[in-house]
Amino acid sequence: MTLRIDRDYALELDHADELARFRSEFVIDDPDLIYLDGNSLGRLPKRSAERLREAVEHEWGSRLIRGWNEGWFTLPQRVGAKIAQLLGARTDEVIAADSTSVNFFKLVVAALRARPTRSKIITDDLNFPSDVYLLQGALELLGNRHHLHVVRSADGLAIPTDQLRAAMDDDTALVTLTHTAFKSGYVYDMAAITEAAQRAGALMLWDVSHSIGALPLELSKCKVDLAVGCTYKYLNGGPGAPAFVSVRKDLQDELLSPIWGWFGQRGQFDFQLQYQPAQGMARWQAGTPNILSLAAVEPALDLLLEAGLDRLRAKSVAQSEYLIGLWEELLKPIGVTLNSPRDYRQRGSHVSLGHVEALRIDRALIEDLNVIPDFRYPDNLRLGLAPIYTSFVEIHEAVMRLRRVIVNRLYEKYPSERPEVT
Amino acid sequence: MTLRIDRDYALELDHADELARFRSEFVIDDPDLIYLDGNSLGRLPKRSAERLREAVEHEWGSRLIRGWNEGWFTLPQRVGAKIAQLLGARTDEVIAADSTSVNFFKLVVAALRARPTRSKIITDDLNFPSDVYLLQGALELLGNRHHLHVVRSADGLAIPTDQLRAAMDDDTALVTLTHTAFKSGYVYDMAAITEAAQRAGALMLWDVSHSIGALPLELSKCKVDLAVGCTYKYLNGGPGAPAFVSVRKDLQDELLSPIWGWFGQRGQFDFQLQYQPAQGMARWQAGTPNILSLAAVEPALDLLLEAGLDRLRAKSVAQSEYLIGLWEELLKPIGVTLNSPRDYRQRGSHVSLGHVEALRIDRALIEDLNVIPDFRYPDNLRLGLAPIYTSFVEIHEAVMRLRRVIVNRLYEKYPSERPEVT
Questions:
Q1: What domains can be seen in chain B, in order of their start residue?
Q2: Residue B308: which region, alpha, beta or left (left: phi > 0; alpha: psi -120 to 50)?
Q3: pTM (2 d.p.)
Q4: For chain A, is the Cβ count within 10 Å smaller at the N or the C terminus?
């Protein structure tokens, strides 16, 4: 790619973008705002707002309890089947339920109980901390009969597959990683790591929260055992929208959630007092599913399926390469580092840039320059590229504004300490 | 009460009802529909629809990720504090989170681990089955070191406090009951049972799903240890809306959820890899809270607080007494039984009527008579009275239509077998 750093070039790229029309599917009411945090919370699809209005006013307001028989009961499966298409999994291998954390807990406990003679759990220090906490909690809950082996990254950017493979042995019950690392954006080799884990006799659990919707996944092809993820990042499902859980078909009879709620019960309206797990993915539900939020998620998934993951990935790669090209020309010379892998094959859809003043720069960008990235401790500015709505000209403008903040030291009016939450 | 069975009397009662104005706060677009299932899914408050629109379009659509710092982070506590007022608990003793099932699981596991030398868990067969399943799952998870003692009701209607008390001993770790029984509407003596459980050295966990919003609760006064409940019944929070969890202040440091998610972590944005539980109720959160649903719940709670629980309870009692009076005159003679306690002090806000053809009657009422009660196996027609919007004339009309279905055998066109879900 022959990089040009002028704005016209970005406009040309947008003009040639076959996905450009999808941008108008989202609510964008401040054209000056550059939103690069779709990897934390995706933008609002217009269809979701409309669908939610219908679900609230017609289904809840008018149909009331009848809504359950008119589509609500099957909504977790229906949403799950669409997520399955984005995962490269079978439609009967996914269900929408609860939060990522709760689903991760269910799968970890189920997996450890399915490997009762093994004591080692492998993860790494690039994993999203919540997953590590949940592992620690599960271990304590199960009587500290297991130990957690946390593989350490040498550079904070990536962990070579061989390093993970070397940790696996015949005592390993479970290997669990976040497929796209939340800080660096490093993407693991799902096929190779899953195969290695299974060869060691362990189960493999992927958290795909930072991947799904941004790049094609191939759970079936990689024979992945277990997966969880959220719907509020690249899936644009809304703040705190329901998560999903996936269990490979041939493990579905064997594995059992530890949370035996009535939506996981076979024949739940028989109201029998002895739990009998439902067949298929239904047993991974616990309580009553959140209908309004699920309703909002569904049309957001349709948009991604319409755009197509291969095209979204192609655009995402073009955009992150473009961003890194601009970084090289305009930001690297003024002290900004690249905290993501340089090789696009190892990179998801966000790019982390490092600067010693990243915390204050982040604040200046948000409060004074109308650019929203996010900050991740200690020095990362994460720039999330959501190919379904992010434009090339936004990337260009973000780099220009970021350069202005640094060159003119516009961040100096902000304190160096962390605000309460970021 | 001198009962008159004419419609004018119902109109007079409505005219005298000091809460009547609250009915107009709800979306009621079919004035002929008699909705008596607010104990399963409450009606849509107009304010909730409006608030949800604002949360979607302004907060998510325009403010995007900034929404977290502009109110979302504290929403579970804010909603929890309002629920606390309805529970008669301290505002720092309640948080909105997850589903009732997931919260119940957390509390059960935490409670059993806080009583490590005791092996008995007491519940009864009037409990909502989901709670029993969750207990069974928790027991298996903890290695079957405990046993579940299910106290059996002699008549399916109620369980005398003495019968429960007799089951408690110095091996009892936990007593857990649903405060208003989901079938019969029987209301337990919260003060006496909690006191007995604690005297035995056990922890007491109440599921108040079928009570909250319909009658005043006094968690603090009764020194209740633990409670859970949902927000989609009398709280009118919407289908599958988030649930809540309550832990008495002086137990909050001692008890720990087994699900160690990042929203329960102290300083969650430090992203440290070692779990440290947050102080107070925050530790009972796991993953990212569902913001849109919580936003819809809040104004629904405000409505109940405005109406006042004492007034709501007074109206609920007047309405259930009126319904039972009509039953006595008009339905009992044609074979309908009362499957709820006759004494209002032992009755929540729904009344169960029994009939051998209840399943088919329920269907005829819904499909042909525009009345929505619900059916509960084997022969219960549950009529839920939500005093904030149910009118006396609706109760009158429901009894008239029910009588018509039975007298004219309008149910005979429907099959006797159960539909897939009800």
A1: 7-31+308-413 (3.90.1150.10), 49-306 (3.40.640.10)
A2: left
A3: 0.97
A4: N
